[in-house]
Amino acid sequence: MRRRVFLNQSFIAESRHFVCVRLNAWQDKRNVERIVRLQGVHQNSCLALVPPDAPGVAVDSFPTAKECAWGPLDFNGSDGSSPWEEVGRHLRSLPDAMRTLAQEHPARPAAGSRPVLPVFPDLTQVLNIAACDCRAVIVAVADESDMAALDHLLVGAIAAPHVVGRAHVVRATPAEWRVALDSGQIVAAPDDATGGAIATDIPGIFVVGPEPYGLHGTLLARIDSAHSPADLLATLHDGLDRFAASFHKLDRSSHIIEGRRDGKRWKEFQPGDWRLFADPSDDAPPPECEDH
How far apart are CA 72 and CA 91, in angstroms? Predict the structure, then answer.
């Protein structure tokens, strides 16, 4: 149901007028507090539209439910209906709500400003999330003095029609990139043109395909900062197409069934309910949580 909404062309078109804020509320106490402020309880899923002039949209603040233009979406079915019936009803109204809000708050870019490059905090996290999202990863690797040039190339390219929505972006220092290569977190694939491995030289922009578990990635394409925007787009197209042709997302149900057949059992719990926010001196054992 959510896939039908979020892959709908009207939703995709309206989403380009918005900034998406994606919170990790599983392992970050501050984000748990933000979710609770927004909807009163801590849930692992929350969705809301917030006007840009809402009082809570500020540093060290966060909006409440009354400041939302749409949502927050209640995943518990508070009107007495089946939760998923209510969720579906709300989600179907989302594109229209986005269109209305965008019309009420048209973009007013500052003179000479460029779009902000949306980046993830580190390579480990972006590989994990990209695998869940069926997205490739674009990695910009350079030292501080060269990173501005890579950002300048990327910020326009990621909004190009054949690229937008197909990859997540992360920056890495030369030292972080070397650790990723030496540890096997990133493995170079054969270069179709030369038959050898794709170069890992830096500075450079790389397309990486996460493996289904999101722990490792395969280097699919590389371009350096000396190339033109047209060359960058061509290389990104090639790398993203290679990823799309090879990636197969794990099917959760089949994965669980296979594990049970192997005698493995598991049980979920939210870190926020236990150790993450506990007193550091508290040595109480965790709740029952069997190994995967």
Answer: 11
The one-letter amino acid at 154: L
Distance CA(34)–CA(41), nearest Å, equals: 10
Of 23, 82, 79, 83, nearest to 48 (Cα)? 23
CA 292/CA 282 separation, integer angstroms: 25
Distance (Å) of CA 223 to CA 24, 142, 241: 31, 12, 16
User: Quick check: helix, strand or coil at residue 227?
Assistant: coil
* Structure tokens that stand for 159 in this block: 């909004």
What pTM did the predictor assign? 0.71
For 252-261, the pLDDT digits (tens) are: 777 788 888 8
Are the beta carbons of 170 and 180 closer than 8 angstroms? Answer: no
Angle (CA) 205-206-211 rounded to 5° is 155
Any bridge partners for residue 167, and if so which? 136
180 burial via Cβ count (<10 Å: 0-12, 13-18, 19+): buried
Tens-place pLDDT, residues 134-170: 999 999 999 988 888 888 888 888 888 888 889 999 9
Task: Please say whether the beta carbons of 158 and 138 come within 8 A.
Answer: yes
Q: C-alpha distances in angstroms, 99 versus 28, 46, 220, 241, 273?
A: 32, 20, 37, 31, 37
User: Is the peptide bond between 203 and the residue preceding it cis, with omega within 30 degrees of 0?
Assistant: yes
DSSP 250: P
> C-alpha 276: how far from its chain's center?
22
SS3 call for 30: helix
CA distance 173 to 113: 25
What is the H or E stretch that residue 2 is in? helix 2-6
Distances (CA, A) of 292 to 27, 257, 289: 19, 12, 9
Q: How many CB atoms lie within 10 A of CB 252?
A: 8
